Amino acid sequence: MGVILSLEHISFTYHSEKGEIRALDDISFSVSQGEFVAIIGPSGCGKSTLLSLISGLHPVERGNIIFHGNTEKQTSTNIGYMLQKDHLFEWRTIYRNVILGPEINKSLTKEKEAEIEDMLKTYGLLEFKNKKPSELSGGMRQRAALIRTLAMEPDLLLLDEPFSALDYQTRISVADDIGTIIKKEGKTAILVTHDLSEAISLADRVIVLTKRPATVKKIIPIELSIENRTPFSSRTAPEFKEYFNLLWKELSAHEYV
Amino acid sequence: MSTSKVSAEQISYLKEVKRKKQFVLGMQLAILLFFLGLWELAADLNWIDDFVFSSPSRIVKTCIDLSVSGELLKHTGITLYETILSFLITTGGSIFIAMLLWISPTVSKILEPYLVMLNSLPKSALAPLLIVWLGTGARTIIVAGISVAIFGGIINLYTTFRGTDREKEKLIYTLGGKKYQVLFKVVLPAGIPAIISNMKVNVGLSLVGVIIGEFLAARAGLGYLIIYGSQVYKLDWVMMSIILLCIMAVVFYQFIGVVERRYQ
After folding, report:
1. What is the CATH number of the domain that holds A213?
2. Tell me: the pLDDT tens digits for B40-94?
3. Residue in A55, A91, A92 nearest the CB of B174
4. Domain, as residue range, for A202
5. Of the candidates A192, A198, A194, A152, the residue with the CA atom closest to the CA atom of residue A171
6. Is residue B53 part of a domain?
7. Considering only residues 160 to 189 of chain B, which have any Cβ-Cβ distance to chain A shorter than 8 Å?
8. A214 with A94, same domain?
9. Fewer CB within 10 Å of terminal CB in chain B, N or C?
10. How far is A104 from chain B (nearest CA, A)?
């Protein structure tokens, strides 16, 4: 499996009239094709900034972000970004919400429409196609938001705490849902979260960041001894607790220094 | 939910809702009839001098007389035309300029003190200037109507547009959109409730501007009729014009209500 993305010595500083805030300091790591990587760190440590840099929403100040081994920006790599809230537009139906990406890129063909219909059907939203977002449950809304992202056929998915707005129970089942969909579609994904068990249950590898300015503290591969691993079944794996304690130690060891 | 089987409780609930609605409408009509009746009675029994206070029957008679001579249609038509035009230009103009300001925060920062100044300026102070520049006619009055409402409209809409959820704007960028797509796909649709409430304000203010304009610089229109009527002591004309303005305001408001329901 090839490397889809590598970050080399990324640093980033926010500038304002009151002064500058160092958000990221010399961050390097890479992500392979089909891999699910979770990034955890104390809140406000610059995790979202990292995703904004990868997606190209912020220009890179120092360091390199390399896609498919070439520095040219996002030429061949299409990036999908899932935000903390679903941000479905209340003035559009679910269908008109999920076609937003192709509509913006003016790539909404008949085939694309059929493809999106298929996805809606597979993920149980077809009958809600003409409903307004407020008529859907939190989990369904998050699924619609994922379909909106997948409609762009991204090679790389960036998930910025996409479950944090949901209540605990919905959160576990939606994480299971979304994680399974991403695996099934064979997508590469980077998940930013502050929820340790969410990171362990979803990821192949967990990257631990320090508090601001964030540096990479540790990279921990998650290997669970269960078959047909799903995000939910991962939580029952015998190693789950060990990983949890390990991550907990890594995070808190830093917090009290 | 099936509609074929409605429980008895639901039926009685719906009846109750309907009864309340009818009660409200009935009371509204009763207040109107009571007020008109009292006015008429007071005039007939000489509690008030109907030469000064007029009366519903005198107003109806004036209405008929002026309709026959075609004057009523002319004056009402002109006021209506001036109000609608200044309303449309105010609404369209404030949306358009607020959009331009949203596109360039630098330009809006530069213009901010001027907008605030123009908004606070008493627009009636401009009227003599407008008369000198544009003459006494519909053009002056339409400009007066626009000047009353447009600056406040621009400031309000710009503030609303600026206040659009940043994360929703970010979503458009993550889907590969450009700034103009943020404007048309998020900022404007999210701003529709604000645009409609701005329209409600504009209707009232345009009418104010037009009537003030007609007071000062017109040879026709309901505002002219009010001023002229008071000068020659034809207070029936004044009262009739005020009643017609009331009706006009209600009709405009209802019209915007229709627009509002369409976009909800």
Report:
1. 3.40.50.300
2. 999 999 898 888 889 999 999 999 999 998 889 999 999 999 999 999 999 999 9
3. A55
4. 3-78+156-255
5. A198
6. no
7. 165, 167-168, 170-177, 181, 185-186, 189
8. no
9. N
10. 6
- Let me know if residue B22 belongs to a domain: yes
CA angle A158, A164, A166 (to 5 degrees): 125
pTM: 0.81
Domain identity same for B105 and B204? yes
CB contact under 8 A, A152 and B176: yes
Contact criterion met (CB < 8 Å) for B170 and A89: no
Q: How far apart are CA B248 and CA B24, in angstroms?
A: 22
Q: Which residue has the tokens 């645009």?
A: B195
Q: Are residues B108 and B41 in the same domain?
A: no
Token pair for residue A101?
């990406």
pLDDT tens, position by position, B90-121: 999 999 999 999 999 999 999 999 999 999 99
Contacts of B176 in chain A (CB under 8 A): 101, 104-105, 152
User: Does one domain contain both A56 and A177?
Assistant: yes
Q: Which residues of chain A have a CB within 8 Å of the CB of B168?
A: 87, 89
HEC sequence for B55-78: CHHHHHHHHHHHHHHCHHHHHHHH
> In terms of domains, do B147 and B167 share one?
yes
